[in-house]
Amino acid sequence: MPQYTPPVRDTRFVLEHVVGLAGHANVPGFAAATPDTVDAVLEEGGRFVAEVLFPINQSGDQEGCTRHADGSVTTPTGFKEAYRQFVEAGWGTLAAPEQWGGQGMPHVVSTAFQEYMISANMAFAMYPGLAHGAIAALIAKGSPEQQAMYLPKMVSGEWGGTMNLTEPQCGTDLGLIRTRAEPQGDGSYKITGTKIFISAGEHDLTDNIIHLVLAKTPGAPESSKGISLFVVPKVLVNEDGSLGARNAVTCGSIEHKMGIHGNATCVLNYDGATGWLVGEEMKGLAAMFIMMNAARLGVGLQGLGVAETAYQNAVQYADDRRQGRALTGAAEPNEKADTLFVHPDVRRMLMNAKAWTEGLRALCLWGALQVDLEHSAPDEAARQEAADLIGLLTPVIKGVGTDKGYQIATDAQQVYGGHGYIQEWGMEQYVRDARIAMIYEGTNGVQAMDLVGRKLAMGGGRAIQLFFKVVAEECAAAKGGAAADFATRLEKALGDLQAATMWFMGNLSNPNNVGAGAVPYMHLLGVVAVGLMWLRMAVAAAALKDAGEGDAAFLDAKLVTARFFAERVLPEAGSYRRQIEGGADAVMALPVAMFRAA
To answer: Catalytic annotation on 473?
Structure first.
């Protein structure tokens, strides 16, 4: 049976030494994030997910969701009771504005808890996760009346929320949507169309689900410029806030999918459902991107969350399983065989998992800090810098985070050998669950194209130049200390990133050069970004060790893992650079007919 222990100690280390939580007390909301309060969130939140959500993860995957003849959907056994406890404990309200019943905590603190929840039960975590995105969109673009009607109960968790983009004929190219919104003369619209792949689209956890739906009004352009956003509740809400009649939106089916079986991924049919415009007509895509950007960061966190659980279980298995002997001679001669830990290739997979998991945790939490600073930093310059950094790194957190999450889950399965392929051990579920995160909220190829096609040029290259400056300054500062070797190696990787960026700038005459190099560039930037996190952790660990503070074994492990990242991961930067500089010719040269079998 799989197991999971929330990595509270590592989270504390990151919040203190990478995020610098205590140094942001002047930012609104951070004053409440005292060390005692944050410790309580981590400890109690970790206990909640370990004791309530994790035990129903494997059973929820095996049972799945059930659609009934009337279109209603029931979640797996235990989900409804677990959700009730989640709501009563207020876990979903951590970072929500106090104005709407939230606790007003920093987003970075909430992100730490969300990682634990995903690790414990990714399918369950998606139900409140989708609602958080809808809440963000309504806060930014909803009318005061819409906010007053929907937000209090969405924030409390009494009502759920979704985002409805995809249709059978269109995914990323949203200009092809066919869902129509007909004005009714009273401020409402009749929404008609079919949406697919709608996570948490129908379920029995809440009394109402507030759908945010993309549709086109009559006469709108047949492109993405003609898209509007509408709020369409599953159950209509009366003026006094009570629930009224059922709206004309139904679950036509549940998708039969590879993983996340505990989450109801629905086909939703809108048959003249009543909805209301959110924001301005034909400005819906901008409003939806508020949800999508939040979701992309959340999906990156899913890569991390699944990787952490898979890694923990692989470590336990490697320590228990005896197979063969160490290459240097029997490690335990009195036993019939040594544990898997003696084998360098097993160590390679586990060290790679540890280095990327802990590095991605730091990057996700540091990214969450930038979200907080973008909205709440005391001065405009700080807000702009934070917006630039998180805008640049969002596709990296999503794309690299989920690519590595899937790789780590697969490597963890490999550690198990044949047992990794067998359902009862739990590892095959993590591989299946991790796979979707590379696809939704824009496939990772789309994330890479967003990075090189939009984010690099943003503000005349302001964001990437800021990132270069941050990394260069921290490398220079670390060169005189215990992390000097790491800083030198990271500086070289930064040079590869800068050179690859300049190569793009000089080879734009063939746009395919950008397209062919986008994914390697995303991973190159990811190596440097996570390398920056490891530089900070190495500097902090060395300083604490020199001062005789902290857990010596924990700090030693940080330093060894930093060395692994420096020696085994940072060199990948040069490989990615060479792939980028190879251009598009070999990628695009083969005629389509030659891809087909003879």
So the answer is: no
